[in-house]
Write a structure and sequence with these properties.
The structure is a single chain. This protein is an alpha/beta fold. The strands form two sheets. Strands 1-2-3-4-7-8-9-10 form an eight-stranded parallel beta sheet. The longest helix has 21 residues. It is globular.
Length: 311
């Protein structure tokens, strides 16, 4: 399978800076995290024909509750990613972490990460202190990202509101996907997507339930109730978003995604080390896509979003 499509790009690939491992406590003891290394990363990439992995943080993210600690951790992980990219320029890209929810700190780190460190984009989590991305408090952030035509990678996590709900089920099995649904809904129904058309969004895991919820939102009169916020309609906004296929390597999930959005909006993602690349490649092969469509998902769509990867 690796020989069939060289130079694949994994848009959803995690890394673990020492400072991040020190900050995330018990999560650092998870087998996948303890087993992470650069050698293992390259082995995973090479056996699946992945030329470049776009580095981002796994949950819980850098928000630690303390403003100063969050700023310090953001700078540390972004500097660490820069060193990895400099050491392996053909193998890594990077989505910079942002010290949310403070807007002054977030805007300062975006400027530093994009202008000085030359990060390829910005990583946001789906929620911060039970505020989802469409919250009005975050308006300055999206105004700046829109001005920059930034690429924004959004990763889910376990929100404070639901940490106690069904807490015997690992959050990656349920709450992570639900938080993607919540944050996309918040961006849509507050008009954030409409007001900031130049932000290029990537959401994880085949969009969670968004491809299915879109029809429900239309049927339940969202376009009438939120006419001012979504004057172009639900589909016009949600079909412009990009979605990776990490942990969505099954036919029902892919069927929902490909039924809703064009191939141009779909990206290869692994969620490594919590997921692997091969199941997604196999599922795409079995779905019956054309070679041209597969090439677009494997690399072409990512190259359009990150032109430097065309080299």
């Amino acid at each position: 399978m690796a020989a069939a499509s060289a130079k694949r790009i994994d848009i959803h690939h995690h890394f673990f800076a020492p400072e991040y491992l020190a900050a995330i406590g018990a999560q650092a003891q998870r087998p996948e995290v303890k087993g992470w290394s650069l050698q293992a990363t390259f082995e995973e990439m090479d056996k699946n024909g992945v030329a470049t992995a776009m580095l981002s943080l796994s949950p819980p993210g850098i928000h630690r509750g303390d403003r100063a600690a969050t700023k310090t951790l953001a700078r540390a992980v972004n500097e660490h990613a820069k060193r990895l990219r400099e050491a392996h320029p053909d193998r890594f890209g990077h989505f910079a972490s942002v010290p949310m929810p403070n807007m002054d700190d977030a805007l300062a780190e975006i400027a530093y990460a994009l202008d000085v460190l030359k990060a390829d984009g910005v990583q946001l989590m789906t929620s911060y202190r039970d505020k989802w991305l469409g919250d009005p408090d975050f308006a300055p952030l999206f105004a700046e990202l829109n001005k920059r035509r930034a690429l924004v990678f959004v990763h889910p996590l376990l929100p404070d509101c639901c940490a106690g709900a069904l807490n015997w089920i690992p959050p990656a099995m349920m709450e992570f996907t639900h938080d993607t649904n919540r944050t996309v809904a918040s961006l849509l129904f507050t008009g954030t997507l409409t007001r900031h058309p130049d932000i290029r969004w990537v959401f994880c895991h085949a969009g969670a339930a968004v491809p299915i919820l879109a029809g429900r939102w239309v049927t339940t009169h969202a376009e009438r109730m939120f006419k001012e916020q979504i004057p172009n309609g639900v589909d016009a906004e949600l079909k412009k978003l990009h979605y990776d296929i990490a942990l969505a390597s099954n036919k029902p999930a892919l069927a929902a995604l490909f039924t809703y959005v064009p191939v141009s909006q779909v990206l290869l993602g692994s969620d490594y080390p919590f997921g692997l690349t091969e199941p997604g490649l196999r599922a795409l092969d079995q779905f019956g896509l054309s070679p041209a469509d597969l090439d677009a998902i494997h690399r072409g769509n990512a190259q359009r979003l990150i032109p430097r990867l065309k080299g």
